[in-house]
Amino acid sequence: MGNYKIDASNRILFSKDMKIVELLDVSCELLSVFLRLDMQLPFGDLSVEELCRRYSLSSEMFLTLCRVYAGAEMHPAVDNLQRDDLRHIVGYLRASHRYYAEELLPSIEQGVERVLSMCEKRQSDIVRKFYDDYADEVHAHLEYEEQVIFPYVEQLLLGERHKEGMAVKMSSHTDICDKVDDIKSIIIKYLPESCPTVERFAVLCNLAHLRDDLAKHTLIETAVLTPLVLALENE
Hints:
The protein is built from nine helices and no strands. By secondary structure, the chain is mainly α. The protein folds into two domains: 1-74, no CATH class; 83-233. The chain starts with 19 loop residues before the first helix and ends with a helix.
């Protein structure tokens, strides 16, 4: 651990003059930020500001995402963010969607199937139905954002106006985090010993990762994206 600047609560202060290697030393969770912004290794001895300049990103926007993913910012400040940051935030959220749909959810589904293959049919059918319903809900949630929220933001940036603004569109936005805990509870409490513990642990780790990532994803949408869009609507 380096000699990082800290605030009054003893939390590490992220700054644009930090070296990327120092930033990643704070939390491995930040690797997802780099991946979703399509930032490629190696980073050498670059600072945050230098790397962001390389990718034409604002360091304020990048650090806001990093603070959320490091768990250091539950109420992200958006005062220093600009309208140009919106395009990159939407791109980041879309990359998160691809990760959920193409990697994480299929991996969880495969793990669930391995666990249920050792259960009685009645039990496996119930759990599989519960998980499949949840996966459908997640896909519907992501599709709503892809088809409604993100195109609206992009059209707004082009100067187009809609009768229904961001507040109305977000009012139809559902929370998809809590049901993950229900699935975890079933796997922990109710499946028989014949369902292998090692396989269950693997699924539980992936489910915990999904829940945490979705929570951060939702925070970015509600506390970063939405305020910026509302400000743009009022211009």
